[in-house]
Structures are given as C-alpha cells and as structure tokens.
Fold this sequence. Notes:
Layout: H1 3-41, H2 49-82, H3 85-91, H4 100-137, E1 150-152, E2 159-165, E3 171-181, E4 184-198, E5 202-216, E6 225-236, H5 253-257, H6 262-288, H7 298-324, H8 334-350
Antiparallel strand pairs: 1-2, 2-3, 3-4, 4-5, 5-6
Amino acid sequence: MLKLDRYIASELLQSIFAALIILTMVMVGGAFMDVLKDVTKGTMPAGMMLAQLGLVMLTWLPLILPLALMIGILLGMSRLYRDAEMPVLASIGVGPKRLLRPLMIVVAPCVVIVALCALWLGPWAERYSRGMIQEANRNLLITGLEPGKFVSMPGNDGVVYVAGMSSGGSEFDHIFIYREKKDRIHVTTAPKGTLRVEGPNSRFLSLKDGFEVEGPLNNTQLNYRLLQYETNDVRMPDRDDGKADADLRRKPTMALLKIPGKESNAQLHWRLAPAFLALALALLAVPLSRSPPRQQRYGRVVVGFLGYFIATDLMILGTQWLSRGKLPMVVGLWWLTLPLLALAVWMYMRDGQLGKVRA
C-alpha cells in the first residue's frame, strides 16, 4: 500500500471508530430500555439483563454500522478539506477517483461486516436470546425471584419473598406473598411451595400448610379474616413460548429462502438491504464532505444524518409493504437500494469535475 493510501485509510478508520463508539453508547441506552421493560413485565429474569443487552445490540448492528461508516467518512474527509490537505492533493493530480482505492480499503470490509451481521449474526442473536428466555421459562426464575429478597410481581400485582430456592427453581422455602385486591390486602405465607405448570403457558405456585390473612387496605375498619389452608395455588405470570418458533426474524437465512410467503420475502429483503445501504452511504459521504478550507464540517454531518434516516425509514416502510402484499415480491427493496446506489456512484464520479465554460 502506498504511503498516501495508508494515510487516508488511517484517517478514515479513526473517524469511523470514533463515530461507532459514540453511536454504540447511544445504542446501549436504547437497548437497555428495551431489556429493562421486559424485566419489569416479568418476561425476563433480572440476572439475564446483561446477556440480553449484548444480544439486542448485536441485532441492531446492521442499522448502526452504516451510519457509523457514513459519519466517519464525512468527518475524516471534511477534516482533509478543512485543513487544506485535499487542495494540495488535487494540485498533484490526486482527485476523488484516485481516492477510490484507499476508500474501498476501508469500506469493503465494513460492508462485508454489515452483511454478515444482517444475514447471520443478527438472526443468531435473536435465536440465542429466545433460547435463554425459554430455558428460564421452565422454572419460576422468570419472575425475577431471588432468595432473601422482596421482589415485585409483574404488573404491580404484589410482592413475593422466598427464603430459599432449589437449584432448579421449582421448590421454595418460607414463602411470603403480599397482594392488594379491591381495597383489601391479602397476605399469604407457607413453609413450602412448588411450581406447577398447566398447559403450555399457565404456571401456579402451589403452597402447602400455610396461612392467609385478608383485611381492609386502610385502618378505618377492623374486618380481618384468617384462613388456614392445606394447599393453595397462586397464579404466577404465564410463560411466553407461543411465538418463539414462528417468528421469522429468528430463522436462519438459508432456511428463510425455503419458506414461501410475503412475510419471509420481506424478512429476506430486510436482511439484504443494509449492505447496499452501507455502500451507497459511504460513496455519498465523499461528495457531501467537499467544502472550502477552514469551514466548519458539522453542517455536512446533519445532511448525512437526514439522508440516513430517510433511507432507513423507507427501508422499514418498504418491508411493511412487502409483508402486507402492497408491493410485488419481485420488486422487493430493490426499488430503494439500487437507485440509491446508482445515485451514489453518479455523485462520486462527478465529484470535483469543473463545469463547462460558457461561450
């Protein structure tokens, strides 16, 4: 590699890496909110939060990497224009076409990574995440119960405390349950309890030889009742296994090719589009970064953000149209990716050309 190619490629890589770090920090906040919402619902145990957070971030990479690639190239090339390095390179015959080689040295591996994330890594992360949740759904750990701690039940349905728990999460010692129903409180205690599953999703906590106290929520009345029971079944949050295998987002790409239908075709085009989008945005970033020396470069970044969000929104909208049958299967998302790529190539080839002089 020539010294000039190494210099430009290193500048672009540094800018892309910096943009990726910032976007990853923003992505962590959004992914954390999604995972935390599932934990509060009781569909995911709190102990799996960090693992699920990492898997959610992997599924978001096909959308984040093209943006980081475009922003990094915009910042890197704009710095060369701002510091008057590009005019110096142009004076010795190094124009945009000559910069295609160092640009592709950086862009080509990034596009391959985006394609791998969209076609393989993202669906694998979805399947692995669902497998972890299904495994946890086999016992009561899905409610977030931990021995020795008071845990709120999903939907603010009460508070549960267990002093001990078996390794499989199906047997419990010294159970305390507090619930509020119709302006009355229900306090249930039992020395022992086991998990009982009915049907595919329903779960009950079977308590043995315990007591239940029922009374008013406020202290203005003294209407209390004490119940001693031999067995008492308490309904717990249902398992969430119903759509695990039917979700096309978790299907491998090769298996998706064998499934006929509008939904599978839409999901397939959703996985193919990010690589073309990344290549088009990378080529568009070079002409967008052209600016006079000593000019601020952040206005170009705003234009790049706007173009990225428009393209992403059209990709999401096109996928919905495909799944609903509003677009033919043959059209797919090619109506978006191919014209965008053609526009990017045309703008890149025309970048730096002088206009015709009028007679």
